[in-house]
Write a structure and sequence with these properties.
With 138 residues, this protein is mainly alpha-helical. It contains 8 helices and no strands. Helix 3 runs antiparallel to helix 8 and helix 5 packs antiparallel against helix 6.
């Protein structure tokens, strides 16, 4: 099946702040080819943030050690030190299993949802041109 996303559509999503749909597009295109790291990180950061609705411990249980390290290193590379610290704390919680710490991280993610969304949009903005008029077979 051929997949195409018009630049106009991508720009409309971006300007409306629809991170959910942009990350869905990033996920789709990433199955076709490698994308710039900023787009990959935005998609992974958004996915992490969304897990607060279901319980962050489940996110970390399903996360491979390789993905965890890659995400943590990328957060640090882009100067997102507070997010890197919070992200790291989730893995430490998983190994220590404390319900209160899980709730605290879930609450922090929910309280900072707008900030994380803005960071995702900022990451996407640097490479948004990579998403429009994409063609490929899946």
């Amino acid at each position: 099946m051929e997949v195409r996303f018009s630049k106009t559509y991508i720009e409309r999503l971006f300007h409306s702040g629809d991170v959910h749909e942009l990350c869905s597009i990033i996920d789709t295109i990433s199955k076709l080819r490698a994308l710039p790291e900023r787009l990959w990180l935005a998609q992974r950061l958004y996915a992490w943030c969304c897990w607060s609705e279901y319980g962050i411990s489940q996110y970390y249980e399903a996360l491979s050690q390789e993905d965890y390290i890659n995400i943590l290193e990328a957060l640090t590379r882009y100067g997102l030190d507070e997010l890197a610290d919070r992200y790291r704390s989730g893995m430490e919680i998983e190994t220590g299993t404390s319900d209160k710490l899980h709730r605290d991280l879930n609450n922090w993610l929910e309280d900072h949802d707008n900030e994380i969304t803005a960071i995702c949009l900022d990451l996407i903005s640097g490479d948004i041109h990579s998403l429009g008029s994409e063609c490929g077979n899946i």
